[in-house]
Design brief:
The complex is a heterodimer of chains A (129) and B (129). Chain A has 129 residues and is mostly helical. Chain A has five helices and no strands. Classes of the chains: A mainly alpha (129), B mainly alpha (129).
């Protein structure tokens, strides 16, 4: 959803309205939250069903196409939602500008790294032999 | 940077409305969930890595520390989920009366505790059976 189309052409041309960009953040946070309701509940339920599974059973669980796709969606939604949530926390509590910027960047990079690692793990198992 | 000026005590003095307690808890549980996601990624990577790495991860989760962290994380998940739905309802414009605010606060608390208990009872039963 492009938030630029919320402005009138004249408003855009005159540069009217808030100088900051907040609606995109708000919207993505809500969409990922909505996605996470069923995904998180499913995740808890499936974990409970497979507790104490040995490695072979765990691999079989993750290799199932439905499970793998759900996990991929869960990972993407979780890290997107998490990055946005952590962003507002850092913005609220870190007042030293340089420290704030550094924290925001590091946090976002960490979320990308963790997300990539998690996705790789899922795909590795799903496509493995 | 402005000089630090003394602040009169307030958090230890004024009454905590339940809405205020839930609001900061939503943030606190969000942070706890974010921290726990690191361990979740470790678990997934261990699963993809092989039986030995996975056994190590499973072993940690089964330890008393692992179980304690999992309890805290699962409660955080259910609380953040329940209160998150409350936020989504607010986004539609509903539930802003004092009565609704206080009522929904209690619904969130009861739901979080209930879901945590149900999940753990189901989990322990699934491990025993």
């Amino acid at each position: 959803m492009s938030t630029d189309r919320l402005r009138s052409p004249l408003g855009r041309a005159l540069g009217l309205g808030s100088a900051k960009e907040g609606v995109e953040h708000w919207w993505v946070q809500r969409v990922t939250a909505l996605a996470l309701v069923p995904l998180a509940l499913w995740f808890v339920a499936t974990l409970i069903g497979h507790l104490g599974a040995d490695h072979a059973a765990a691999v079989a669980w993750l290799r199932s196409p439905l499970t793998a796709v759900a996990m991929i969606l869960l990972i993407i939604a979780t890290f997107a939602h998490m990055a946005l949530g952590l962003q507002v926390v850092i913005e609220d509590y870190v007042h030293h500008e340089a420290t704030k910027i550094a924290s925001l960047v590091l946090m976002r990079l960490a979320c990308w790294a963790l997300g990539a690692a998690a996705l790789f793990a899922v795909l590795r198992v799903a496509f493995g032999s | 940077m402005p000089a630090s000026r003394p602040l009169s005590p307030h958090l230890q003095i004024y009454r905590w409305p339940i809405t205020m307690a839930l609001s900061i808890s939503h943030r606190a549980t969000g942070l706890a969930l974010a921290a726990g996601t690191v361990l979740l990624v470790w678990w997934l990577v261990a699963l993809a890595a092989g039986p030995q790495a996975f056994a190590l991860a499973q072993g940690f989760i089964g330890s008393w520390l692992g179980k304690l962290l999992l309890l805290g994380w699962s409660f955080s998940l259910f609380f953040h989920l329940a209160n998150g739905i409350r936020h989504l309802i607010w986004d539609t414009g509903q539930g802003y009366s004092i009565k609704a605010m206080n009522g929904s606060s209690w619904v969130v608390i009861v739901a979080s505790v209930a879901l945590t208990v149900i999940a753990w009872v189901a989990g322990l039963a699934s491990m025993a059976g």
